[in-house]
Specification:
about 500 residues, Cytochrome p450, 20 helices, globular, endoplasmic reticulum, iron, oxidoreductase, iron ion binding, microsome
């Protein structure tokens, strides 16, 4: 009896969801190629796991075989349209600023943030936060990034020649501290539980993926009754408690000092927001969510990118040698770390980072919501659809990238870049709602990679090609089987 009631309830909820707001999509959607779908569940019955990446393996498979470069998939009442055409991508990212309902899965931890919020809130917050990421303020972070890079070198000095089963946690610890030291005026050692942010972030992503692996948990009614949701709520509460402690320390720091609001320090991310809070321009809850998001995102994306760059350079020793020779040329003194001016001269290293993010974008997709019909010849992407840009396919399109699976940093020489559409390479998104911290991220990655490689040669154990790397498809792309060994350079 209970099973019968449960089954009927699931069917009723699915039918209700399927009938809600999808009529306007059908006319234009049927013209767009895509996998076969059936009423109520759409194309989801074709996949083993109901998870965004798996669903779009179907769509992306279609994209690979279609000259049109776009395809659709229904998941219940939700229409998803994927495109790998740069012209479509530019239209989507320019005209569709609202995020897909997919991002509502982050609401418990970061509802009204730059990542997830509706356009009206995003515009207000972006205007407030933009000044904290201008070039003058970013340049003031340089010495802080250098100091944490040196801490990584010191760690390696104690582990010379030893294989690391996973070097990512080591990097991540330093990027958490670097994010705290730059985005706030709080000394990292004051926040005793700061390293728990890593555990919380990993577990949060695991639960999110588990939810998408389980069909009935996609329905809010059943999700909120599940043990996973209870665990999820505890994680979110803990993350907010850590962020609240950081904010409290920021206020304490402000009140204990004769703070000049015109200094560089006062214009950093969190000091700037606390100042705006005192003038009622932003609420304490909004600061809490933005702080949770910014610290988690800034530290995780930087750590993953650094780890991926080192893993790939450990595979391609010839490219690593070219990076090293550039470092020797720019930094002849082994004891020195790059100044900001020297960092800007590391052109080949920057091309290596960009080529890494081409092949393996840390954020593997972009999802937007169409508030109105978007004309992308020969199709119309209808209002109410979810528009999906799979960066892995876009960045490996053979029409744009000759030998797309070859690792070649010289693709990013100025003359080569000029030949391509500006939306053919968008690891940090594009348009008004791009990643606010992309310059911050590139800076910390270059400083840390340069400091490590100036002191150590990196070897990737058991791999001959970047294709040997196995990827963990969480919210971000992480190397699962990366084992690095470091050899001290002889001078």
């Amino acid at each position: 009896m209970l099973i019968w009631i449960f089954t009927c309830s699931v069917i009723f909820i699915i039918i209700s969801d399927s009938l809600e707001g999808s009529d306007g999509c059908y006319y234009h959607a049927w013209k767009i190629p895509g996998p076969f779908s059936v009423p109520l569940v759409g194309s989801a019955f074709l996949v083993t796991h109901i998870i965004l990446y798996r669903i779009f393996e179907l769509v992306c498979g279609k994209l690979d075989s279609l000259q049109t470069g776009c395809a659709k998939s229904w998941v219940g009442s939700q229409l998803y349209i994927a495109t790998m055409r740069p012209t479509d991508t530019e239209k989507i990212l320019t005209n569709c600023l609202n995020k897909s309902p997919f991002y509502e899965n982050f609401n418990d931890i970061m509802k009204d943030t730059l990542l997830t919020s509706k356009v009206s809130i995003w515009k207000e917050h972006r205007k407030m936060i933009n000044p904290s990421f201008n070039s003058k303020i970013l340049n003031s972070y340089h010495d802080i990034f250098v100091s944490y890079s040196r801490e990584m070198v010191k760690f390696l000095d104690d582990k010379e020649g030893a294989e690391q089963t996973d070097f990512l946690p080591v990097i991540w610890e330093k990027t958490v501290d670097a994010a705290l030291a730059t985005l706030t005026n709080v000394k990292p050692h004051v926040i005793k539980e700061r390293q728990r942010m890593i555990t919380i972030t990993v577990k949060f992503e695991e639960i999110l993926i588990q939810r998408f692996h389980t069909f009935w948990l996609l329905i809010d009614f059943f999700w909120k009754l599940s043990n996973l949701h209870k665990e999820h709520k505890v994680l979110c509460q803990t993350a907010h408690e850590i962020a609240e402690n950081i904010i409290a320390e920021e206020y304490k720091s402000y009140e204990s000092e004769d703070r000049n609001d015109d200094t560089i320090e006062s214009k950093r991310f969190l000091p700037n927001l606390t100042k705006l809070n005192r003038t009622k321009q932003i609420t304490r809850d909004e600061i809490l969510e933005e702080t949770s998001f910014m610290l988690m995102a800034a530290s995780e994306t930087a750590a993953i990118t650094i780890n991926t760059v080192l893993t790939i350079l450990g595979i391609y020793s010839d490219i690593q040698e070219r990076v090293y020779q550039e470092l020797v040329s720019v930094l002849p003194n082994i004891e020195s770390s790059p100044t900001q001016e020297e960092l800007n001269r590391l052109d080949y290293l920057e091309r290596v980072v960009k080529e890494t993010l081409r092949l393996v974008p840390t954020i593997p997709f972009i999802l937007r919501y169409a508030d109105e019909d978007i004309k992308c010849d020969p199709y119309v992407f209808p209002a109410g659809s979810n528009l999906f840009v799979p960066l892995v396919l876009l960045h490996r399109d053979p029409e744009i990238w000759p030998e797309p699976e070859k690792f070649d940093p010289d693709r990013f020489l100025p003359d080569e870049v000029a030949k391509r559409h500006r939306c053919s390479y968008i690891p940090f998104s594009f348009g008004a709602r791009n990643c606010i911290g992309f310059k911050f991220g590139m800076m910390v990655v270059k400083v840390m990679v340069a400091t490590i490689l100036r002191n150590y040669k990196v070897l990737t154990v058991g791999m001959k090609s970047w294709k040997d790397i196995q990827w963990d498809y969480m919210v971000m792309l992480k190397a699962k089987n990366s084992r690095l060994r470091f050899e001290k350079r002889k001078f």
